[in-house]
Amino acid sequence: MSSHDISEDNLPHKQAHAHGALGVADKDNPFADPGLPPHEHRIQDIDEKASKRSERIVAALFTLSMLATIGFIAAFVALPVDKIVYIFPLGHISALNFSLGMTLGVALFAIGAGAVHWARTLMSDVEVAAERHPIEASPEVREQVFSDFRDGVTESGIGFGRRKLMRNTLLGALTLVPLSGVVLLRELGPLPGEKLRHTMWSKGKLLVNVNTDEPLRPSDIAVGSLTFAMPEGLHEHDHDFQKEIAKAALMLVRLEPNDIKDKRELEWSHEGIVAYSKICTHVGCPISLYEQQTHHVLCPCHQSTFDLADGARVIFGPAGHALPQLRIGVNDEGYLQALGDFEEPVGPAFWERGES
Question: Which residues does 4 contact at the CB level (< 8 Å), separation at least 6?
């Protein structure tokens, strides 16, 4: 479309003149400021009934958000995880997932819709022209900004004077919505309680060879050898085998009693046989490398090295503390047995964070 096809009344200089422009565009000044059109008041600005109606709509949306959040929490508590329902056109889906998604979506949408409706119908919509100014504001400008902010608070009705219904429902919605996230934390898993502090080892529990599934005698362990053991009653086909072996895995090394430097280690051993947790105290890798001459064991993941002749203390690598030792002895039939559980939790960095 060419300029000849445009009505004279729609040309820029005609529009600017009609609206009380600050300048008129011509060939010498083609970019003159055309100014602003006359301000048109919204119906809420001139009709108190319309203003109250908008206020009720905003309050209703915030109230809907609160109800949806309560519904989210109720669904999380009441609906079983394995319940499947048919919903057209989605088909067969998890009732819990559908309920959580719908209620949380409604809660967030209602807050957003309420805020938008509040801003569009009740907050001040007067256009304000501001000239460009240096980045550093003068005292007069700063005072003007604070003044405008106070005026905006007054106009929006957030203060304690007008529109308490909207303010209260907004605060209620914003207070309840975060509870959805707090409730979801419960889904991270059951509370551990004391489970991490105890293993299957207990007084009288036999030490069973991992490879042969047979109980061990002292004669089965030669000097300088490394043997892996697990508690009696634990089998690979058990549904909780991996969970239990991750805490109870044991390694046995037979040393010459004169080579054991740590007094407690010697007291908790049997004929030079020492039993230590196989779980590295760095990130929980299984320790499997043994150096016979130095009595050192090495974790293959990050090379943490422990001295089994000196309380399994850390002599190299990122591990934070020594390996826990299991006190052992023999029963009346001559089999190696545990004389209790580990005295400290096994695994990585647990006791720096846990409470006793």
Answer: none
Query: How many whole angstroms separate alpha carbon 305 and alpha carbon 307?
Result: 7
For residue 84, what is the enclosing H or E element? strand 84-87
- Residue 103 · residue 75 · CB < 8 Å: yes
pTM of the model: 0.51
Pick the CATH number of 195-235+244-353 from 3.40.50.720, 2.102.10.10, 3.30.750.24, 3.20.20.70: 2.102.10.10
- Closest by CA to 208, choosing from 239, 257, 256, 241, is 241
Tell me the C-alpha to C-alpha distance, in Å, between residue 144 and each of 36, 73, 129, 155. 22, 45, 13, 16
- Side by side, the strands of the sheet bearing 296-298 are 289-291, 296-298, 305-307, 313-316
Distance from C-alpha of 322 to C-alpha of 226, rounded to nearest angstrom = 18
Per-residue pLDDT of 276-335, as tens digits, reads 999 999 888 999 899 988 999 999 999 999 999 999 999 999 998 899 999 999 999 999
CA dist., res. 294 & res. 163, Å (int): 79
CA dihedral 121→124→127→129, nearest 10 degrees, is: -150
Q: Where does residue 140 rank: exposed (0-12), middle (13-18), buried (19+ CB within 10 A)?
A: exposed
E strand or H helix at 174? helix 164-184
